């Protein structure tokens, strides 16, 4: 009579779906899937699981497996109870390139996970291994999305959250400066947040960000763009010439200008709250506020002029002209003089 309950349980199981959770606070579960290519988020999620398990039992036994070079039977052997019955954490990487032996063993294991064992599976994204991914969804495994943060709005939210978790404050312009300076890499952005939290006191300001990261190419480019969009030609040109003299490539300078002009063009003549426009335009509220302030220096005709000169400058600094330095200087001059101070 014993098989009947298992069949009934299986029927109920098919109604489950993957439980999505926040990578900063991963709920402990028998099986956790980390899905996506952002290694930093995956590593933070794993660290959170390890910390929680070790808080429950410092004698946690940790094992790492590679799904691409897996030997049949390894998972069952590692998950089996040890002599002293310590809890176990099994971390498996390379699910996107798993071999058939791992697939078969994993499909069997997740239907009936071992007690006191946490299995964390890391998949770099895509559809490879779909059979296992579908099976994880059926059994209700916890799923952590590890996707890159591509939009500035996402990165600013990330910075704000890092400071909130540390019970520290950072002003909006400092967040913007930090994202501009080190936002290309999420791990680098997190390290910058940690450094500022450790090395400063009180509210972190733009002066603090400039002190540590003001020499970065991205930060310099946005200072040039800020001055140009505000119609401050002397400051824009002096900052630009200093940047070029210290070896800054013209390409990111034109890129920063283009991004600022696009933001101004998006909010130009629009009405509504910053929050509403931020949702509609895929920007953060502070970006909307900043673009609106810049828009006060511009007319529709001047914006058209700026967009045209930037299109020309973008082509020129990427090889269409022999003198990319002149191209970016010309663009900055046209934009700064087109804006009303």
Describe what you observe in this structure.
The chain has 341 residues and is of the alpha/beta class. Helix content is 59%, strand content 9%. Strands 1-6-2-5-4-3 form a 6-stranded parallel beta sheet. Helix 4 (100-109) links the parallel strand 4 (88-93) and strand 5. Helix 10 packs parallel to helix 16 (324-338). The protein is elongated and about 75 Å long. The N and C termini lie far apart (85 Å). Residues 1-16 have low confidence and may be disordered.
Strand content: 5-15%
Q: What's the order of the H and E elements?
A: HEEHEHEHEHEHHHHHHHHHHH
- Portion in helices: 55-70%
Q: Low-confidence spans: pLDDT under 50, at least 5 residues?
A: 1-16
Distance between the termini: 85 Å
Shape: elongated
Largest sheet entry: 6 strands, parallel
Please state the oligomeric state of the protein chains shown.
single chain
Rg, Å, rounded:
26 Å
Q: Helices and strands in order, then pairings?
A:
Elements: H1 3-13, E1 19-21, E2 31-35, H2 39-56, E3 61-66, H3 74-79, E4 88-93, H4 100-109, E5 117-123, H5 130-139, E6 142-145, H6 152-165, H7 172-182, H8 186-199, H9 206-213, H10 217-229, H11 233-245, H12 250-267, H13 274-281, H14 285-295, H15 300-320, H16 324-338
Parallel strand pairs: 1-6, 2-5, 2-6, 3-4, 4-5
């Amino acid at each position: 009579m014993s098989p009947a309950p298992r069949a009934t349980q299986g029927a109920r199981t098919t109604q489950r779906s993957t439980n999505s959770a926040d990578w900063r606070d991963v709920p402990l579960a028998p099986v956790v899937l980390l899905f996506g290519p952002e290694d930093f988020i995956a590593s933070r999620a794993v660290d959170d699981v390890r910390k929680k398990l070790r808080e429950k039992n410092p004698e946690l036994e940790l094992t790492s497996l590679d799904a691409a070079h897996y030997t049949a039977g390894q998972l069952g052997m590692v998950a089996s109870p040890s002599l002293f019955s310590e809890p176990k954490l099994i971390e498996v990487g390379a699910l996107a390139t798993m071999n058939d032996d791992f697939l078969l063993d994993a499909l069997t294991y997740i239907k009936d996970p071992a007690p006191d064992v946490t299995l964390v599976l890391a998949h770099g994204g895509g559809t490879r291994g779909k059979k296992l991914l579908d099976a994880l969804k059926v059994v209700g495994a916890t799923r952590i999305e590890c996707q890159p943060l591509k939009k500035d709005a996402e990165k600013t939210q990330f910075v704000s959250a890092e400071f909130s978790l540390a019970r520290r404050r950072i002003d909006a312009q400092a967040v913007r400066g930090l994202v501009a300076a080190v936002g290309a890499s999420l791990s680098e952005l997190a390290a910058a947040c940690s450094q500022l939290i450790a090395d400063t006191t009180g509210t972190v300001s733009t002066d603090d960000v400039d002190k540590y990261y003001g020499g970065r190419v991205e930060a310099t480019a946005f200072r040039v763009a800020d001055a140009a969009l505000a119609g401050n030609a002397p400051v824009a040109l002096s900052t630009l010439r200093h940047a070029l003299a210290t070896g800054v490539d013209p390409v990111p300078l034109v890129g920063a200008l283009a991004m600022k002009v696009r933001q101004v063009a998006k909010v130009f003549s629009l009405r509504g709250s910053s929050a509403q426009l931020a949702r509609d335009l895929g920007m953060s509220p502070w970006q909307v506020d900043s673009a609106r302030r810049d828009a006060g220096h511009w007319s529709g005709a001047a914006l058209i002029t700026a967009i045209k000169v930037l299109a020309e400058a973008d082509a020129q600094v990427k090889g269409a002209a022999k003198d990319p330095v002149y191209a970016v200087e010309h663009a900055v001059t046209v934009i700064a003089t087109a804006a009303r101070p």
